[in-house]
């Protein structure tokens, strides 16, 4: 994996964006590759990324979930961090803080995890545009270099399948997913391969998941 420094781009304030109270903290625990707990017990969802899921309920551990979690642990263990708001709302529907998490050396965890192929770009329309542009660029580079999970994922038969994106949500689905029928025709965009969808900046929808799992 590349070890280059990946600093956060300058963040301009979003209209109506609320700041994050008490933006300083110390990382204590990583649930997976995109969510961590601080020593003051606050839960933080790292902005603009999604990582393969660890097992929960009946769902099995997804491919590269353990590696992604271990990489985030390595990047954050005993580190002081700073939380920078990049969305209009400081918390998600689960009550977790959503932020660009920056280490003391100024490096962004979102950027580091994407650039090392441990997480993929997960956009929302209320996120800072410059931040999203930077994360997508890092993803495109990681794909080109086949870093992290990209090498195996893009070698699988599923990578050669067709996918349909929703321009409104910026999510994509396997072409045979029933959910595709509910996308308005004007919002549909078609991708010939899995890589095309990721390079365009769309992220997998949480329905009709295709990501491989591990025992």
Outline the secondary-structure elements.
Blueprint: E1 24-30, E2 35-38, E3 43-46, E4 49-50, H1 65-76, E5 80-84, E6 97-103, H2 109-115, E7 120-121, H3 129-145, H4 150-153, E8 163-166, E9 171-174, E10 188-191, H5 194-199, E11 203-204
Parallel strand pairs: 3-6, 9-11
Antiparallel strand pairs: 1-2, 1-5, 2-3, 4-7, 5-6, 8-9, 8-10
Helix pairs in contact: 2-3
Q: What is the CA–CA distance across the termini? A: 25 Å
Report the CATH C-level class of the largest domain: Mainly Beta
Helicity level, as a percent range? 10-25%
CATH topology title of the largest domain: OB fold (Dihydrolipoamide Acetyltransferase, E2P)
- Main sheet summary: 5 strands, mixed, barrel
Please report the number of helical segments: 5
For the record, the count of structural domains works out to 2
The total beta strand count reads 11
CATH architecture label of the largest domain: Beta Barrel
**Would you identify the regions where 5 or more consecutive residues have pLDDT less than 50?**
10-16
Note the overall shape: globular
* Beta-strand residue percentage: 15-25%
What is the element string, with H for helices and E for strands?
EEEEHEEHEHHEEEHE
User: What structural class do helix, strand and pairing data support?
Assistant: alpha+beta
Strands ordered across the widest β-sheet: 1-2-3-6-5
The average pLDDT value, as a whole number, equals 92
Radius of gyration: 17 Å
């Amino acid at each position: 994996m590349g070890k280059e420094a990946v600093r956060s781009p300058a963040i301009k304030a979003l209209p109506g964006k609320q700041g994050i109270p008490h933006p300083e903290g110390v990382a204590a625990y990583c649930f997976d590759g995109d969510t961590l707990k601080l020593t003051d017990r606050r839960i933080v969802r790292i902005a603009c990324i999604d990582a393969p899921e660890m097992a929960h309920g009946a769902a099995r551990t997804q491919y590269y979930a353990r590696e992604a979690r271990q990489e985030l642990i390595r990047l954050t263990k005993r580190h002081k961090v700073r939380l920078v708001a990049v969305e209009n709302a400081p918390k998600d529907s689960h009550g977790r803080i959503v932020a660009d998490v920056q280490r003391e050396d100024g490096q962004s965890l979102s950027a580091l995890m994407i650039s090392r192929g441990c997480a993929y770009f997960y956009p929302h329309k209320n996120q800072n545009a410059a931040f999203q542009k930077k994360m997508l660029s890092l993803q495109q580079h990681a794909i080109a270099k086949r870093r992290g999970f990209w090498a195996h994922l893009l070698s699988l038969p599923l990578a050669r399948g067709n996918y349909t994106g929703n321009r409104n949500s910026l999510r994509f689905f396997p072409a045979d997913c029933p959910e595709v029928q509910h996308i308005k025709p004007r919002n549909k965009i078609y991708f010939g391969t899995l890589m095309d969808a990721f390079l365009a900046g769309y992220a997998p929808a949480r329905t009709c998941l295709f990501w491989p799992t591990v025992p």
